[in-house]
Write a structure and sequence with these properties.
Chain lengths: ~375, ~80
């Protein structure tokens, strides 16, 4: 069986490594083959961007060579797909190769898309790419006081990032001795400060206590950069001195161009994880259209399910389990304390008060992640 | 015409949740499109109509059947 994994991020890498271990004898005998196609030779640890933007990690800590993370037996090529021919089970790559498959997994991730809001890309700071996170760090270093507005679009990856950035900025300005000169304001699209009700119930009083103000039911419409005004679809206008945005995201452009899903979100069965209408194409991570967190842990737990199922398809002819919607997200609540939210399709999260121990667990995980990527943790 | 209704299935979605899922999917719609949100969260029956009116879309109806809320609206802008 020829297994093709498109995408070398967290989901694709964990999946490839798990499959290589489960199918080690089949790979040796030639009964199965695992091929990965990625747009990059590097593996990028995206959760590190939050720390990069605040000067707590450096860019080199966020990358490893993709090949160094992969189990032997995986055929890895830096040769992104440009054309999908699902009816004939083939893809065509940038270098012109045509690769056929028996099973394909789409794990191409997501990207911020600030261009979708007039005035946003040119007037806000971001921390969802290395370049923008470094630029934001420099802007923060030069900031001596005024109103900082953090504004959140829909959909976006890393659901905890809005809260994490505002709480960490609070401590950042405190440490610089200028917190009394900075007004921190937060906007969120629905009528509470976070999508998860229990997380919002914890976070709102924390914000009140720290003097962080907020507007809810706020969906970004446009930014008037000349006058430094952020405007919402709901008719609210907010003046800012420094605007930090988590913009709406899209899936990768190649998926839209190939008609696989509007805005790059692929219609996906939420428990079987197959692309709707395709029994041999599966989807993992941010690029599904499942109404679930676009988070690394989601990709990780989906990859676990897919690895077990695809290996079972090779060994026994059919999948064996379903994905239960499991998500686990750390929530940094400042520079030295954190909590977490764990939930699935049936059980909401119940976050506990932040602790230093959980923060140190997250800091440790920033290093341990590379073991997760190898499918071992 | 039932086929033209765009279903936003937010059942079992804690994050991002039915309302955020609706906001995301509205971006792919055209003015005049009818959306129907499915939610097993009681709060949706209040939050979604409130947001729809606040932002300027047209609220159509809310019904509940077997523990699932069906909230219909029309994209107006």
């Amino acid at each position: 069986m020829k297994i093709l994994i498109v995408g070398g991020g967290m989901g694709g890498t964990i999946l490839a490594n798990s499959l290589a271990r489960r199918l080690s004898s089949e790979l040796r005998s030639g009964k199965a083959r695992v091929t990965m196609l990625s747009a990059s030779e590097k593996h990028f640890y995206q959760p590190g961007l939050l720390y990069l933007a605040l000067g707590r990690m450096t860019p080199d800590e966020l990358y490893r060579d993709q090949a160094s993370l992969l189990e032997p037996g995986i055929d890895f090529y830096v040769d992104p797909v440009e054309e999908f021919m699902l009816d004939s089970n083939k893809v065509k790559t940038k270098s012109g190769k045509t690769i056929d498959y028996d099973v394909m997994v789409l794990a191409t991730g997501s990207r911020m898309f600030p261009e979708g809001v007039p005035g946003l890309a040119e007037n806000a700071e971001f921390f969802y790419t290395e370049e923008t996170a470094v630029k934001m760090f420099r802007r923060l270093q030069a900031f001596e006081g005024g109103k900082v507005v953090i504004t959140v679009g829909v959909p976006h990856k890393c659901p905890m990032a809005p809260l994490e950035i505002i709480f960490m900025l609070n401590d950042y300005f405190k440490d610089r001795g200028i917190r009394d000169k900075v007004q921190l304001h937060y906007t969120y699209p629905i009528n509470r400060v976070h999508s998860l009700e229990n997380v919002a119930k914890w976070a709102a009083p924390e914000m009140d206590q720290l003097g962080i103000t907020y507007d809810t039911f706020f969906n970004i419409k446009e930014v008037d950069g000349a006058n430094k005004i952020l405007k919402s679809e709901e008719g609210v206008e907010i003046k800012y001195d420094l605007l930090i945005a988590i913009p709406a995201h899209k899936g990768m452009e190649v998926l839209e161009k190939n008609g696989l899903g509007a805005n790059g979100w692929i219609p996906t069965n939420r428990t079987k994880l197959n692309m709707e209408g395709r029994s041999n194409v599966f989807v993992c991570g941010d690029t599904t259209n499942i109404p679930i967190s676009k988070a690394g842990s989601t990709a990780h737990f989906e990859a676990d399910t897919l690895a077990e199922n695809i290996a079972a398809m090779v060994k026994m002819g059919s999948p064996v389990r379903e994905y239960d919607g499991k998500v686990f997200c750390f929530i940094e609540a400042g520079k030295d304390r954190a909590t977490y939210a764990m939930f699935n399709y049936l059980n909401p999260p119940d976050p506990k008060a932040p602790t230093k121990a959980m923060h140190w667990f997250k800091i440790a995980y920033n290093k341990l992640y590379w073991i997760s990527a190898r499918g071992l943790l | 015409m039932a086929d033209d209704i765009k279903i936003v299935d937010g059942r079992g979605s804690f994050c991002p949740g039915p309302l955020m899922e609706l906001i995301a999917q509205l971006k792919s719609g055209q003015v005049g499109d009818v959306f129907e949100v499915l939610s097993n969260d009681n709060g949706s029956s209040k939050d979604i109509p409130e947001w729809v009116r606040k932002v300027g879309h047209e609220f159509i109806s809310t019904t509940e059947e077997a523990g699932v809320w069906h909230i219909r609206l029309r994209k107006a802008k």
